[in-house]
Amino acid sequence: MSIKEFSAEVALAAHTQLGEGPVWDEREQRLFFVDIVGQRVHSFRPDTGAHHSFDVACPVGAVVLREDGGLVLAAHDAFLVADADGLNVEPFGTFRADGAVVRFNDGKVDPRGRFCAGTMDWGGSLPIGSLYMLQPDGTVSVLLDEVTVSNGLAWTADGTTMYYIDSRQRAVDAFKFDLETGALSDRRTVAEFVGMSPDGMAIDVEGCLWVACWDGARVDRIDPANGRRLAAVHLPTSRVSSVAFGGPRLNDLYITTARHKAEDALLAPEPDAGDLFVAQPGVSGPPAFRFRYG
User: Fold this and answer.
1) Is the dihedral of CA 95, 97, 103, 108 positive or negative?
2) CATH of the domain at 29
3) In a domain? residue 284
4) Distance (Å, rounded) from C-alpha 25 to C-alpha 43?
5) Residues 79, 80, 81, 83, CA torsion sign
6) Which residue has the higher pLDDT, 1 or 248?
7) Three-state SS at 185
8) What proportion of the chain, given as a percentage, has pLDDT over 90?
9) 206: three-class secondary structure by DSSP
10) CA 289, CA 294: separation in Å to the nearest integer?
11) Are 8 and 234 in contact (CB under 8 A)?
């Protein structure tokens, strides 16, 4: 079976250090994403080209949409809420991770409106992180421990399977997901990667996974039923960090990239490293779930 090949082009010269976590707001037709190292949340409207960002004053690993408008952030060692324009940034709940040894890295809202976000070792080598679940009332529970670099998340259309990436494992795993409690069970590997690390991830309406390949210069489309690589989106930069479906028909694939810690020899031939890219992969994705705040 031949692999479909696509290319991506720059949608926004964002110049992020570590672009991550894109999420499409279908109500306002704009994309939010973060620059973890740059400590900023960005928003971009493709129809007008409008681009805005605001400072969070700490590394921000993930941004998600709220049902009532506004945003929730997983930033450094805590959860924050903010208006969509970056005003009124304030803590949400009392949870704190041990920010001296871990930071938040990636997260998404689950089908029941809860925010699942994971931490990673600052050095990216020790299994001391966790995957957490933030409830609408601000309480937090642990879904998974002994995580090294918590990354991509996605759920099947019926919500009973959660796909998850711990990048250091170089694999995409699947869990049975309890919709009522969020409990995980029956872990299994559905895809493995060689010579690169899987990073952020999105799911399309056909149930296939789109996985950003860090140090791979591409996004792979994976069939989780058999782990087969069905398609690849090629980029002119190596450090591909995450993906999200967006656009009026949710058939544009937005892709974040990074230049953080890249050597000059790598960056010289990759002037677009850190920019936001877009591709047309011939399939659409579901709208993002929203956090049911308050």
Assistant:
1) negative
2) 2.120.10.30
3) no
4) 10
5) negative
6) 248
7) strand
8) 93
9) coil
10) 16
11) yes
Catalytic residue among 121, 199, 220, 275: 199
DSSP letters for 91-128: E-SS----TTTEEEEEEEE-TTS-EEEEEEETTS-SS-
Residue 34 covered by a domain: yes
> Within 10 A of 224 (CB to CB), how many other CB atoms are there?
19
Whether 189 maps to a domain, the answer reads yes
Closest listed residue to residue 203, CA positions, set 114, 276, 110, 130: 110
Structure tokens at 52: 């805005």
Length of the chain, in residues: 294
Residue 216 φ then ψ, to 5°: -120, -10
Structural domain of 218: 4-279
Q: What is the pTM assigned to this prediction?
A: 0.96
Asked if residue 269 belongs to a domain, the reply is: yes
Q: Is 199 considered catalytic here?
A: yes
Rounded Cα distance, 113 and 124, in Å: 29
Please give the DSSP secondary-structure letter assigned to residue 258.
B
Report the alpha-carbon distance of residue 37 to residue 243 in Å, rounded.
18
d(CA 67, CA 291): 6
Q: What is the mean pLDDT of residues 134-158?
A: 97
Sign of the dihedral through C-alpha 280, 283, 287, 289: negative
**Alpha-carbon Rg for the chain in angstroms:** 17
Alpha carbon 234 to its chain centroid, in Å, reads 18
Which residue, chain included where needed, has tokens 């037709």?
29
Tell me how many domains the chain contains: 1
